[in-house]
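Quick one: co-fold with pyridoxal-5'-phosphate.
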Amino acid sequence: MTEFSTRAVHAGQEPDAGTGAVIPPIHVTSTYAQDGIGNMRAGYEYSRGGNPTRDGLQTLLADLDGGVAAYSFASGLAAEDALLRAYLEPGARVVMGNDVYGGTHRLVNRVHVPWGVQLVVVDMSDVDAVRGALEGCSREDGAVGGDPRRTRSWKIADIAGLAELGHAGGALLVVDNTFASPYLQQPLSLGADAVVYSTTKYLGGHSDVVGGAVVLADEALAEAVAFLQFGAGAISSPFDAFLTTRGIKTLAVRMERHSANAQAVAESLVGAPGVERVFYPGLADHPGHEVAAKQMRSFGGMLSLSLSGGAAAAKRFAESTEVFTLAESLGGVESLIGYPSEMTHASVRGTELEVPDDIVRLSVGIEDAGDLVADLRQALTR
Ligand SMILES: Cc1ncc(COP(=O)(O)O)c(C=O)c1O
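Sure, here it is.
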């Protein structure tokens, strides 16, 4: 099994040994019978510590990103929290991209900073700013995190360049690869130390499960995250792990369609009446186009646009679509439209992560591209 699409269907998903069931059963048990005290039949003792359905998903996730191990959690933020607490100690510094998911900023700013961590926010596509933010870091106290796809303007960060810079500055590079998914982009192969996901999005793919994951390149860090998964207990449930595994089987085909549809939508919006700018890295004039083309298989399903009528027009547009559903989140088969400054990024209003109020965000689904373009056109005329 060498190619991604094959591994996405089979890794960690052997038919059930006992019955031959092609789809391994969902192990909805909290505990496991012991044949004598401490004599476990298959190594499983209690489901917070280990569960075959969760293990199947974790094997699959580690395989797809080329990591030494992966751990799945109850949400993307639980995964980020476990990774950061596994690595950081009070006094450590987190250098964060200035347009990460608002909840990631809130997690570090309101949970880890009060615990003694320093937070420095920079533009991850500005090499000098990142170098400056790393000054004085040592291997013990650095971490760089960034989602290379950003809601505000979709600046693209060069992962290989950041890894080099981070490692030279004594930092660990963590990439939130949620928007790209492992099908479009493989941060560990570009030098990142860890990848985090909200599996709620493209990996689950159907807007029916909340979850998160961490994939690691290093055994020691993997052990520390494994301990926190068990010790703090923010595990994914067997049913959530099953739904995520089922979603991943079609990840490759879905991502191809998301990218193709988003490209068609982006091109249709350029120059459309009422549209000021379209931010999509698949457009040749996007400032991050070349870096994205170098490190991604295609450009993904997320894009933003600004409206020339400002906030009022942006809100009216977001409330006027019929195929695109007005909702938080992204990455499902259905197209969603959002108004970040009052929805996904409301928690960062008034900070340097604030999203301008003329911006509308689209999560382009796998519906018919012509229907999507027509829907946006009719909403623009309103
Ligand atoms: C890029 C990104 N990372 C992390 C998260 C957090 O994930 P979750 O909502 O599963 O906790 C989100 C949620 O929207 C996200 O968009």
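If it helps, The longest strand covers residues 171-176.
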